[in-house]
Write a structure and sequence with these properties.
Layout: H1 3-6, E1 13-18, H2 27-38, E2 45-47, H3 57-70, E3 74-79, H4 85-97, E4 102-106, H5 127-137, E5 142-147, H6 158-170, E6 175-180, H7 184-196, E7 203-207, H8 213-223, H9 229-238, H10 242-262, E8 267-270, H11 276-285, H12 287-290
Parallel strand pairs: 1-2, 1-8, 2-3, 3-4, 4-5, 5-6, 6-7, 7-8
Helix pairs in contact: 2-3, 2-11, 9-10, 10-11
The chain binds flavin-adenine dinucleotide.
């Protein structure tokens, strides 16, 4: 099932993001966690891609398993970082063979050891280059890409960021998924600006339930997201109690999702990562709204 078709639903639906194992020894435990999440029957599940290379084949292994065992549509991530024309073509063949119809085209997080690389020598420097390649090599794929309500950390201003986003969408993106954010007004403001810039594809907001205090620092470092005072107070109050922090973080994310749906946003992507209990709790908090 193509994600673009799932996005036509008018009722709220959730999708969940998982990441592949980093080593072969953790494959079975990751596989089992992703299966638990698939049993919740989300609209789709996305599987991230380790931009460092090495374990990238596990992305497809996990995506294939979810689809085969539970019939949940999957979105396989693919990055420019550590990809060559040859490896991308190989991945596309594998994706087709596995019956996966959706690919997320990303630049990728730059691993430490590649920070000083001459990026002009990469086969794909920006996500747009990957979008072109995917569209020309396999036009039937449904292609997603990333967008940043609080601008991408490497961009100097939002105008340039949105200009590049428009070019990326025009290259052949069917939908966009946002970076995490903790203040919905940032998303509403961003949507207004990108619609004004002529970007018309569906945008799926990405919500990350913060379930422990250590995650806060990591999340801000990675995404540069703004932490509203309301969220900071919650971390101050509950950060030292793991179970209370988890409950409060899930409640905060649930609240964000309810507000998004109240503002007519019907698809929300949840960065619950490989935590079935978190995915399950978010879903059960919304059971009547989801009609389950
Ligand atoms: P791009 O679209 O290439 O943009 C990166 C920067 O370059 C931006 O500042 C943009 O404005 C600028 N830019 C774009 N095009 C041009 C151009 N033609 N000329 C000049 N500047 C340009 N990382 C992983 O490693 N694996 C994953 O699986 C993964 N999944 C993700 C899923 C989502 C939903 C999101 C939001 C992020 C994900 N990331 C992942 C992180 C992502 O790879 C990083 O945020 C990365 O820094 C940028 O990726 P991008 O695809 O947005 O890049």
């Amino acid at each position: 099932m193509k994600i673009i078709n799932l996005l036509k639903e008018e009722k709220l639906s959730l999708s969940f993001e998982v990441f592949p194992p980093k080593t072969e020894t953790s494959f079975e435990s990751v596989k089992s966690a992703t299966e638990e999440i698939a049993k919740l029957k989300p609209a789709f599940m996305s599987v991230t891609y380790g931009a460092g290379g090495g374990t990238s084949k596990y992305t497809l292994d996990i995506a294939k398993n979810i689809k085969k065992m539970y019939g949940v549509p999957t979105l396989a991530h693919l990055t420019c970082v550590s990809s060559t024309r040859e490896t991308v073509r190989e991945r596309i063949e594998e994706i087709k063979e596995a019956g996966i119809e959706n690919v997320m085209a990303l630049r990728g997080d730059i691993p430490k050891e590649m920070e000083n690389d001459d990026r002009n020598k990469w086969d794909y420097k920006h996500a747009i280059n990957l979008v072109y390649e995917l569209k020309s090599f396999e036009p039937s794929l449904c292609i997603g890409a990333a967008c940043y309500p609080e601008i991408h950390p490497e961009s100097t201003n939002q105008k340039d960021d949105i200009k590049h986003l428009k070019e990326k969408v025009d290259a052949g993106c069917d939908f966009l998924t946002t970076q995490m954010f903790f203040d919905n007004n940032l998303l509403y403001n961003f949507l207004y600006k990108i619609r004004e810039a002529g970007i018309t594809v569906p945008v799926i907001p990405g919500i990350m339930p913060i379930t422990n205090a250590n995650q806060v620092e990591r999340a801000i470092k990675l995404s540069g997201s703004f932490m509203p005072q309301r969220f900071k107070s919650l971390v101050d109050k509950f950060g030292s109690s793991p179970s209370a922090m988890k409950q409060a973080g899930i409640a905060y994310a649930t609240d964000q999702i309810i507000d998004l749906y109240a503002n007519n946003i019907t698809n929300v992507h949840v960065y619950s990562m490989n935590k079935p209990d978190v995915a399950e709790k978010i879903q059960s908090n919304l059971s009547d709204i989801l009609g389950r």
